[in-house]
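Sample A.
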Amino acid sequence: MAAEDKKPSASARNRFAIRRLTLTNFRCYDRLRLEVEAGPVVLCGPNGAGKTNILEALSLLVPGRGLRRARLSEIARRAAADAPETPPRPWAVAVKAVTGDAAADLGTGFQPSEEGAAERRTVKVNGEAERSQAALAEHMSVHWLTPQMDRLFQDGASARRRFLDRLVYGWDPAHAGRVSAYEQAMRERLKLLRGGRPVDPAWLSALEDTMAARGVAVAAARADVVARLAGAAAEPQGPFPGAAIALDGELDAWVGAGPALEAEDRFRAALADERGRDAALGRTHTGPHRTDLAVRHQPKDEAAAECSTGEQKALLIALVLANARVRAAEDGGVPVLLLDEVVAHLDAERRAALFDALDRLGAQVWFTGTDMENFQPLRGRAQLLGVNDARVTAA
């Protein structure tokens, strides 16, 4: 099933790649074991066959909720439609991951706990249980594009923040822990403010100190990645236009204006001043959770949200390619790319340009599609696999 071996480029020798995938009780798969080469993989088959489920499993190999953002209890393989309702069931994803000459066994899954307990994902690295999802980012970098993301520039800022943070995880694995710590402190502070009881000022100040330190660190990490990518993103790549990118947020302006400690002091003072408003309205008004990623179509000097649907998709692909190019140039850690139904709505010129750009990067790319004809230029360069009724075979 493997594509013909070729001498890898320098970036290919240092890319992230999946060599073996095992799914247990995951979506439509009772059990699946898939061995692949380190190059591109095409999953082709009818709608509902199980292609995107494989990509979703791979997307759970980095911090976050995966490409569908599903609840953990919703992911397990369902019983037959006429079977009685059952409680949440466990599921697992396991892979052999490689980066250059290094290899690691990564695993993640869900084990139902007592009723009422918060859902929590289990994580293992080389057989050892880890306390945090952030451990995955030390061994794997994954980024994805899905049809739902075609509205990234039309939807709210939260979707663009998640997109940016997934890029940051690849550059700085500790970013996931900082985001989690900030959000936890923000939730605890808001709970105190809205609790209807006298608030311990020392505890409230401690939470705001945590938010200030972690929040500024989150903003600084985002600013670093945007600065790294800005030059490459602005360069057009054939039919994919250049994009001007910037952070838009009050805290981001403070971080960019001076030393981090000054930004922390301003943020801490803002949190103290806004306690009454935050309590009354039930939300925190200042912080990195309010940041937006501003994107403009460079040749037209037009906001991405004002561009056509086709232009927005081309901009999105351009940003993903720019990140992969810079990663390859700076540290060789080319991420695994999951492209769900991306080529279906590209014309032949853009498909060919995309395939060639990914080939130059040496990235492991997982494509899905319903028409194998769209992937004919990849014959000899990729593994072509058929997916039908939760079965994967050589195409």
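Sample B, a different protein:
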Amino acid sequence: MTDATSAYQQHIGEAAALPENVMLRVNHLVKEFPITRGVFFKKQVGAVQAVSDISFEIRKGETLGLVGESGCGKSTTARCVLRLLEPTGGDVYFRTGEDDHIVNIATADKDTLREIRREMQIVFQDPYASLNPMMTVASIVAEPLVVHDVGTKEERLERVKELLQVVGLSPEHANRYPHEFSGGQRQRIGVARALALNPSFMVLDEPVSALDVSIQAQVLNLMQDLQEELGLTYLFIAHDLSVVRHISDRVAVMYLGKIAELADRDALYEEPMHPYTHALLSAVPIPDPDIEAKRSRILLEGDIPSPANPPSGCRFHTRCPKAQEGVCDVDVPELRELEPDHWVACHFPEVKKVF
């Protein structure tokens, strides 16, 4: 157990036995991508530390927002949780819905993974790239049913029509192709496909970032309605903090593969404690010219360090306005609970209102 996660790890527990209100728990998740040289005889000369020893849990029926700058490890974390990428280390405990059985996704065999994939689905970021242009909508939405051998051909078609209605599309669109739909409609098709097997947990990987603002609201409202109707649990990934505030119950802020702050939505937006969270929130525009004129933007100096060679100590210290030499550049900050259910990984945390 590393110092950086020990307090939070003790809080959520090491064992696979999850409290009844917890659906998914991530323990010490690590994902590294090897850096190699050579053409025929490749030799590893380093590694990109995309996700570096993070822990968190997601409760039943809630939406956990995962935010941060591009390249901080959000999508990699999500793909490791679903085992679309093989984790380098750590555990991912998931509570299955039917028999309340707990499975370690990180070490599960192929047959076990196939079974639990029915309960874990993902909606991808780009609706233009995530749908096969050679398949009809009916074939796309029915594909999970075919893969898992669910129902007859007629029953699958009925299920497709039902799902299209659930996401706000006409069943008459089933025989059309993706290019005949707008971006928002394509994302609805992706949502319908993800719902085909009645999952209990869904990863939403920036599902609205490629859509127009007016369409974003429609898709977000759809996801909230589905969550309420079907009892879904979400891991919502985004870099738009306004969107995250709209849909999330709790928010985790990532920086360079680490969790910097984790708290309830209102606590994090109204009383952020980590300097990185201060900077992120100061960049969110407010639709009130009087308030906006009084705000001061926190500008971070320098660029994000390379995950192939992250800084020592606190990974944010190279850009942090509060960093102190001999502390922040040496010691890795522990993720500590400074307020009830408000966790911060900073040597010098400070409540700072930015709205």
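Observation for Sample B: The mean pLDDT is 89.
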